Amino acid sequence: MPAERLSMRKIKEVLRLHAAGQSQRAIAQSVRIARSTVREYLQRAAAAGLSWPLADDVSDTELEARLFPPPPGGSVSRPLPHWPTIHVEMKAKRRTGVTLLLLWVEYKEANPDGLQYSQFCESYRRWRGGLDRVLRQEHRAGEKVFVDFAGQTVPIIDRATGEVLFEAEIFVAVLGASNFTYAQACRSQELPEWISAHTRMVEYFGGVPLAIVPDNLKSGVRRACYYEPDVNPTYQDWAQHYSTAVLPTRVRQPRDKAKVEAGVLLVERWILARLRHHTFFTLAELDEAIRRLLDDLNDRPFQKLEGTRRSLFATLEGPALQPLPLTRYDYAQWKKASVNIDYHVDVLGHLYSVPYQLQRAKVDARITNDTVELFHDGRRVAVHARGRRKGGFTTDAAHRPKAHQEYLEWTPSRIIRWAEQTGPRTAEMVQRILDARPHPEQGYRACLGLLRLGERYTASRLEAACGRALHAGALSYRSVKSILSTGLDRADVSEQTALALPQNHEHVRGGEYYAAAAAGE
């Protein structure tokens, strides 16, 4: 069975990191694929004449077609050896004299059309290279920073009541070559706090390392996510903005993050332990105290080396860091969305338009504090100022279909004709809803929801409910739905006339009562 192809997002990340000068090993660790796969995709890109950055007109579909052209003829697959068995044979001490040459001869006897000896040896060494092994980590200047949250938290207290408002998380980062350390307080371990801490970290360093090595924290690495099983799209977006790579550590492999584990221990001993008797009422107060003790930690002399973390950073690691970009990263959240027949996309409750040709298509939404960008097939198809009103519309006039394009699948007249099948009052309600919108397409959702009520409550009840809503001037989907759910559609409209109260009633005291009360009787 052939191996499953990578997503176009991952392939683009491979090309980007290769163009940025990352090694194939680093790319494989960042994208979470084998080095042989990285090599294969780079070779395919070179053969297709592709280089990073890709041209704006190269969509994901076109990129896949150029990287994976159909073979000119049927390919011949050769049977591969069972490498685990070969490996066991080579490791078994009691089977002295066993060599790769002997194993290849036995393999060829069983598979005459199999690999030749050189291919056999190279394939085995490549397979063996992917096995787990322990290596001493050597860190080059400016290469990696290791990040994680400390195990300890610090309570933030309500000044008025003395209650604990929340437990502040402590973010820790350690540069690989100099051990220069950064720490700050965060409200939580959620994604916005995680990204904000990374931004403040590189600003504290005054530069960006080639790679970020996080633990498998869910905020940064979403392995269980259906659409993005590896690095969180927002985290990857941040890395692309700062021209760095994300190299998540392996699960339950503490040696992969030994630097930050040691850094967390130092922060807990020399910062958090010294603050244990302090009370903090705001996150800013805690951050200020951490920063003072952090400077003291970075200025402490090494026990076995000359100098301090700060001096080693200034002379060795700081100059090797990449420069910061001209603009600070604007936090962006990514979401999957579907385009409705009104060619609008629901993003956090607000509706944004895309070109009408994308009706029913799947798009990616990139959401910042100020803008919403919509991507289809890897290309940006729309950008809007972010709207905050729930249920509101943001429509680009260029996305609307022209009036003379009558071949469109959905039009106001078609929806009205559909409503006429239920009854004239339903058709009038649909017409009134469409007329109340600046653009008729903005009323499509409400009209379709209205017509679906007929499937739930029957067409006759929907017709009656629309008649009652028209009589009351309640021209909305919600009003009709409320009438149906409460059963008011079964009552006659005349029953809503105001009831006349009798002049004489046992609970009506009358003027004589109050006159007597005023006289003190």
Shape: extended
Binned strand content: 5-15%
The radius of gyration computed from the alpha-carbon positions, rounded to a whole number of angstroms, is 34 Å
Q: How many β strands by DSSP?
A: 12
CATH topological fold name of the largest domain:
Nucleotidyltransferase, domain 5
Total domain units: 5
Query: What is the mean predicted local confidence, pLDDT?
Result: 78
Order of helices and strands: HHHHHHHEEEHEHEHHHEEEEEEEHHHHHH
Class by alpha and beta content: alpha/beta
For the record, what CATH class of the largest domain applies? Alpha Beta
Give the helix tally.
18
Question: Order of strands in the sheet with the most strands?
Answer: 3-2-1-4-5
CATH architecture of the largest domain: 2-Layer Sandwich
User: Which regions contain 5 or more consecutive residues with pLDDT less than 50?
Assistant: 132-136, 223-229, 403-408, 495-501
Q: Give the end-to-end Cα distance, rounded to a whole number of Å.
A: 102 Å
* Fraction of helical residues: 25-40%
- Largest sheet composition: 5 strands, mixed
CATH superfamily of the largest domain: Ribonuclease H-like superfamily/Ribonuclease H
